[in-house]
Amino acid sequence: MSHALELAKIAGNAGEVPVGAVITDASGNLIAEGENRKERDQDPTAHAEIVALRVAAKTLQTWRLHECTLYVTLEPCPMCAGAIIHSRIGKLVYGVDDTKTGAIRTVMNIPDSAASNHRLLVMGGILESACRQHLQDWFATRRLQSK
């Protein structure tokens, strides 16, 4: 999660919402990383999780990532939750709840819904304070800059 937080800082410094993600294989080896790239790539799907999932699938030469763990600094949105389910990620670890668009536990619960064909192991609240503080600081700075 510490590495995902560093990626979030890189994204924030580039003008993106500061979210970072990493994926490890069954042995705990880092196989993919991603950071929000929507603005830089002009791609509405370029969320940190999606970027990391694409790299992991390419690295492993399979879309079935059932032996992998995804670490992300912010609870995934509905789009990312769907992609996580479809990738068959074995475990999701996230930092802070997203009270506006969180689709894992906070606003929606896509993994445990009838629409999910995959049971996802979820752990939230990992480095929660650091993840929350980084997001709050970034948004506070953005608000000051826009005045």
TrEMBL record:
* The entry's keywords: Hydrolase, Metal-binding, tRNA processing, Zinc
Q: Does the keyword Glycosyltransferase apply?
A: no
What are the binding positions for Zn(2+) in this chain?
A: H47, C77, C80
Q: Which cofactor does it need?
A: Zn(2+)
User: Which enzyme class, named as a word?
Assistant: hydrolase
Tell me which stretches of the chain form a coiled coil: none
UniProt domain CMP/dCMP-type deaminase: residue ranges: 1-107
Q: What is its EC number?
A: 3.5.4.33
Instruction: Fetch the InterPro entries from UniProt.
Output: APOBEC/CMP_deaminase_Zn-bd, CMP_dCMP_dom, Cytidine_deaminase-like, MafB19-deam, tRNA_aden_deaminase
Q: Which reaction does it catalyse?
A: adenosine(34) in tRNA + H2O + H(+) = inosine(34) in tRNA + NH4(+)
Q: Tell me which PROSITE patterns the record gives.
A: CYT_DCMP_DEAMINASES_1, CYT_DCMP_DEAMINASES_2
Q: Give the active-site positions.
A: E49 (proton donor)
A Pfam family of the record is: MafB19-deam
Q: How is the cofactor bound?
A: Binds 1 zinc ion per subunit.
Q: Which domain of life is it from?
A: Bacteria
Q: How does it assemble?
A: Homodimer.
Q: What PANTHER family does the record point to?
A: CYTOSINE DEAMINASE FAMILY MEMBER (PTHR11079), TRNA-SPECIFIC ADENOSINE DEAMINASE (PTHR11079:SF202)
Q: Which family does it belong to?
A: Belongs to the cytidine and deoxycytidylate deaminase family. ADAT2 subfamily.
Its job: Catalyzes the deamination of adenosine to inosine at the wobble position 34 of tRNA(Arg2).
Its recorded name reads tRNA-specific adenosine deaminase
Q: What gene is this protein translated from?
A: tadA
